[in-house]
Amino acid sequence: MQTKTIRRYGLTKEQRDCWRTPKWMFNWLNSMYDFDVDLAADEENSFCKDFLSTEQDSLSVEWSKYWDVGFLNPPYSAPTPWIKQIIKEQNHGFTTVLVMPTLNGDIYNSPILRRASSITFIIGRIAFLAPADYWVKGKPGKSDRLVKAGTPVSGGARGTAIYEFAPIPLSREGRATLLSVNRNELIKAYS
Asked: Which InterPro entries match (predicted)?
């Protein structure tokens, strides 16, 4: 087992890219999609028997050669290569269910809007799980606090949406089905 370093005051860039998906969210999505593979995970945080880790380099694997449906909570700092891989695999009949912050005009959003078969907005902020132990500097008059790995952490600047990339005919391109769900109802039903 790898020893975790407690970083004082925040997370490294690599750690910020490893926020973990809450179990209730995966349970909800898995009830609809029955995932074959977790496309960006490790042995500690994968919810699927099959997963692709950093060492296996998910972006160099032909997903559609081995599986039909994949779950993806990718590193948010560099989404473009993941979007390109999703679309490539969509063209080969693979379905990807992508967890990402809601769209706000980022440059990588254009292919998402063109190629997603559905977009589900989650009403209510999601508390993703801390990827490692780290310290948060206290506000004036308050103590610093240690956040332990696996602890739900709220406070993201944007909401979360689920983007489904199922194989679609070109005639449907750019016509994603838009849905919304209530976070609290999902937590109650899938925790």
From this structure: Dam_MeTrfase
Q: Which span out of 8-12, 101-105, 134-138 was modeled with the highest average pLDDT?
A: 134-138
List, for residues 120-138, the tens digit of each pLDDT value.
Answer: 999 998 888 888 888 877 7
Contact 122, 161 (CB under 8 A): yes
The verdict on residue 135 lying in a domain is yes
Ramachandran region, residue 105 (left: φ > 0; alpha: ψ -120 to 50; beta: rest): left
Which token pair is 93?
A: 């009949």
CATH number, domain at 123? Answer: 3.40.50
| The pair of three-digit structure tokens given for residue 148, joined into one six-digit string | 């332990």
Please, are residues 190 and 27 in contact by the beta-carbon 8 Å criterion?
A: yes
